[in-house]
Amino acid sequence: MIRYSIAIVDDEQTIRDGLDMVLADTYDLDLYRDAESFAAALADKVPDLVLMDIGLPGMSGIEALELVKAQHPGLPVIMITAFEDIQMVIRSMKLGAFDFILKPINPDLLELTIQKAVSSIALVKEVQLLQEKFLRENEPCFIGESKNIEDIMDFINLVSSSPDTPIMILGETGTGKELIAKAIHARSPVFQGPFVAVNCSAFPEDLLESELFGYEAGAFSGARHQGKKGFIEEAHQGTLFLDEVADLSPAGQAKLLRFLENGEFYKVGGTRTYKVSTRVVSATNKNLDELVAAGRFRKDLYFRLCVVKADIPSLNERPDDILPLAKYFLLQFNEKFGKSLTGFTKDARQRLVSHTFTGNVRELKNIVERAVLVAKNDLVDTQELGLVQDTAGGTAPERLSSQDRKNSPGNSESSEYPEPSEHTVPLPDKGVVLGKLLSDMEHAYMAKALNQTRGNESQAARLLHMNHHTFRYRWKKLNKKG
Questions:
Q1: Does 389 have pLDDT greater than 70?
Q2: Nearest to residue 468, comparing CAs of 293, 288, 317, 318?
Q3: Among 348, 335, 336, 412, which Cα is nearest to 379's?
Q4: 226/334 Cα distance (integer angstroms)
């Protein structure tokens, strides 16, 4: 059963206490003695319903009603008045008050009025709770403290309001592209419709058409006698997620383009036209601009799919999020394995932050799962992470022998530092600011690459063996620092 929250705004202590006594068992209540304190709290916590006195000291109930409706037009407000001033009641109703009740308050009439107000927002509240549940269960890739995560969440909130605008999500493997697509679906007007995910690289070219569009009875040898719905039809009134869309064959690209142009398609072996309404969200870890330039991806399909485009940064580009994510996964695997680990040692935290994640969030999750599984103390130590220091200063997954697995995680023999490379550089006695030195070197190489390619970012990224989106992100970031 859904439990609703009510804000009660009244300057009379007896009224607040009385309403608290009558309603507290059924509703979550917040009590305010004036409109000013309520307005301040509204910035952080929005109730499902407001009971507010008209005759408040300072800011009046009418003024507070105007404020509430300006910020939250759909929030029901029931006005309380000590005398039946028809003009005041009419004014409050014109401003958007849901209803009004007279003092002394009749508990039965109050409950009836509240029930009417609650029924008007019941569906909205139910959807909100379902969305929150989904987000709690499915958005670990959005946990973090970096500006990048804030930008991703702002992007999701912005584009979710449209039920059918095509969206393209770009990012390296493991950055959570499908979870972002699910988050967009969860916040969209078609939230209660299906979310259908299709890996475009998983089907041979001769099967892709029948999987996407379905087929009619007897369309080919071995076809079901009743025919079959395709993924596109299954996604009607919902969201179709096309993962690895850059791997579509030329024939598959042409067929998808036809559907995107008018929402109509033919099933394999059929002559009847089907029409489907669905939002298409696509994703790839490849550089579509380069594929289009090389003629391997249709330019017209590119523009159809990329009405809105989002570049998702890799985990290496948002190091501030590594430890919050690691703590989240630690708690998750505590529950899975029946453990009660409390965190990571200082050395383990430093090792995680210095690690180069080639698999992004997915890799971090696997590292933490292993660590929680083998940990024997309250804190995860460096050896339990399974990462070893490499000669470049980063870390790499540790390959354990059978004898290593028998040893205690606290065995000190496995914590030796690697011998310095023969290609060493002198280290001044006063030391160096390594972070700035590395940033300066990175900026110099990127500038050289851009100069050599006459400003072509894609070619410059290839010279440095970098992903194009990573190159663009790092170049902007380094120039801001400068």
A1: no
A2: 288
A3: 348
A4: 48
Q: What is the DSSP letter of 80?
A: E
Task: Assign domain 434-481 to its CATH architecture.
Answer: Orthogonal Bundle (1.10)
Q: Which residue has the tokens 């696997």?
A: 366
Give the count of alpha carbons within 13 A of 27, CB side only: 22
pLDDT digits (tens, 9 = 90+) for 62-116: 999 999 999 999 899 999 987 767 788 888 889 999 998 988 889 889 999 999 9
CATH class of 318-411: mainly alpha
State the average pLDDT for the chain. Answer: 83
Cα–Cα dist 239/256, whole Å: 15
47 has a pLDDT exceeding 80: yes
**Considering only CA atoms, which of 56, 59, 58 is closest in space to residue 80?**
56
Reported as half-sphere exposure (CB side, CA atoms, 13 A), residue 313 has a value of 24
Structure confidence at residue 266 (pLDDT): 84
CATH assignment, 5-131: 3.40.50.2300
Domain with CATH 3.40.50.300 in the chain: 146-313
Decide which of 3.40.50.1820, 2.40.50.140, 3.40.50.300, 3.40.50.2300 is the CATH code for 146-313: 3.40.50.300
Q: What is the pLDDT of residue 135?
A: 56
- Residue spans in the chain of domains classed CATH 3.40.50.2300: 5-131
By residue count, the chain amounts to: 482
Is 466 strand, coil or helix? Answer: coil
- What's the confidence (pLDDT) of residue 13? 92
CATH 1.10.8.60 boundaries in the chain = 318-411
Q: What is the average pLDDT across 309-330?
A: 88
In angstroms, how far apart are the furthest CA atoms of the chain? 91
Element (H, E) at 462: helix 457-463
- In this structure, what token pair is assigned to residue 382? 């460096």
Q: What share of residues in the chain are helix, strand, coil (percent, to 5)?
A: 50, 15, 35
Residue 198, classified by CB atoms within 10 Å of its CB into exposed (0-12), middle (13-18) or buried (19+), is buried
- Average pLDDT in the 327-338 region? 88
Give me the pLDDT at residue 36, please.
Answer: 94
Tokens of 127: 């959807």
Residue 417 has pLDDT above 50, yes or no: no
Query: Sign of dihedral through CA atoms 467, 471, 477, 482?
Result: positive
Query: Do 281 and 163 touch, CB atoms closer than 8 A?
Result: no
14 touches 104 (CB < 8 A): no
d(CA 314, CA 362): 11
Nearest Cα to 253, choosing from 212, 220, 287? Answer: 212
Q: Could you tell me the two tokens for 124? A: 């909205």
Instruction: Give the phi and the psi of residue 294 in degrees, each rounded to 5.
Output: -85, -5
